[in-house]
Give the backbone structure.
Amino acid sequence: MNKLTVLMLGDVSGTAGMGALFLGLSSFVKEIKADFVVCNGENAAGGFGIAPEDFYKMKECGCSVITSGNHIWQKDAIYPLLDSEETLLRPANYPTHEVPGHGYVICSVGKYQIGVVNLQGRNFMPQIDCPFKVGLSTVEKIRKQTPLILVDFHAEDTSEKEALAYYLDGKVSAVVGTHTHVQTSDATILPLKTGYITDLGLTGVQRQVIGSDASISIQRQITQLPIKSVVAQGVGVLQGVILTLDADSGDCLSIIPFSR
């Protein structure tokens, strides 16, 4: 059996998250012999959005594809790159003809091809196009070229994430959740061999409030004033999952969460 090892990283948050990538990703990739790396970068620029320089640094650190979510629109300077850089994704279920960018990519890894799909949820989030319908049609398109497909579902609601995973079970190699910045303990392989976890976690400072300064987050809760969140400062960690995939069938053979 031919196997591929894939590393999927949770949302990179601010300077600490970028620092964790710079200092730790290359050695980790070598240690586990990862063939492919997917990282959510929508919070790289001070916690909100991603700047062009962040994208290029993430690529230099070893990220094969950078996914995103609702904060991708925070930095206007990134808009041209959404069209020109095929490995920088925005959620596929934004209206295709009205917004810049693309929601999936197919990459070559040796003699194999891996598709990466970026989707965004609608529960407690902007009411964009249906992630289920857009997700299925995108997956069906990619499966004409390869059964190796990874889905980053950037969503708030656990039930929506689980439902999409079962909806795509057997059609994709993995569905991983991002956005909530807290790594969940439910990593599993679904009945039809799709790997799943509700949230990859946070590449950034732990023991704060989803990567933001705890004192300011507390003040927001107590006062209910629209105080701007500030990204926590400190030593960042890498969080996510290691996937082992059957390179020929696309089946997920194992999914192992990590925090490092």
In short: The chain has six helices and 13 strands.
